[in-house]
Amino acid sequence: MVRGDHPDPALWVHGVVEPDRSRALYAFVQTATGVVAPPGRVRLPGLDEDAVHRLAPLPPGDRAEGPSRTPLPWWGEGVELTGRALATVGIQAPMLHPERLVLVEAVRL
């Protein structure tokens, strides 16, 4: 199990990573109303840093129910980034209503 650091205590980021670091499933959990909007970037640790991974929402947790009317650019089509970029720079987290979550899958290409 891995945890992504985020400055807002109302947004939890955690996941599970395959032992060979080729695939991971992350949950973004909005436990309460956040202190900032939008929530900013979240870092996703644990993947093979030198490999490119495709990151995309995973059903059934792919509905970002929140106050934003504009979906994130990477949400619909997914995005391809290195494990190093995901762990150090991260991605923009979706805005979620309290007590909601989304699932995101990362798969090594």
Describe the protein.
The chain is mostly beta strands. It has one domain (2-108): Immunoglobulin-like, CATH 2.60.40. It is built from 2 helices and 8 strands; from the N terminus they run E-E-E-E-E-H-E-H-E-E. Strand 2 (11-17) and strand 3 form a beta hairpin.
Mean pLDDT: 93
Structural class: mainly beta
What is the helical fraction, as a range of percent? Answer: 10-25%
CATH topology: Immunoglobulin-like
User: In percent, how much strand structure appears in the residues?
Assistant: 35-45%
Shape, per Cα inertia axes: globular
- How many domains? The number is 1
CATH C-level class is Mainly Beta
- Looking at this structure, what is the CATH superfamily? Golgi alpha-mannosidase II
Which architecture name does CATH use? Answer: Sandwich
* Strand neighbour order, sheet with most strands: 1-2-3-8-5-6
Let me know the largest β-sheet. Answer: 6 strands, antiparallel
Could you state the order of secondary-structure elements as H and E?
A: EEEEEHEHEE
How many β-strand runs? 8
Q: How much is the radius of gyration in Å?
A: 13 Å
Terminal-residue CA separation? 22 Å
Task: Tell me the number of helical segments per DSSP (H or I, 4 or more residues long).
Answer: 2
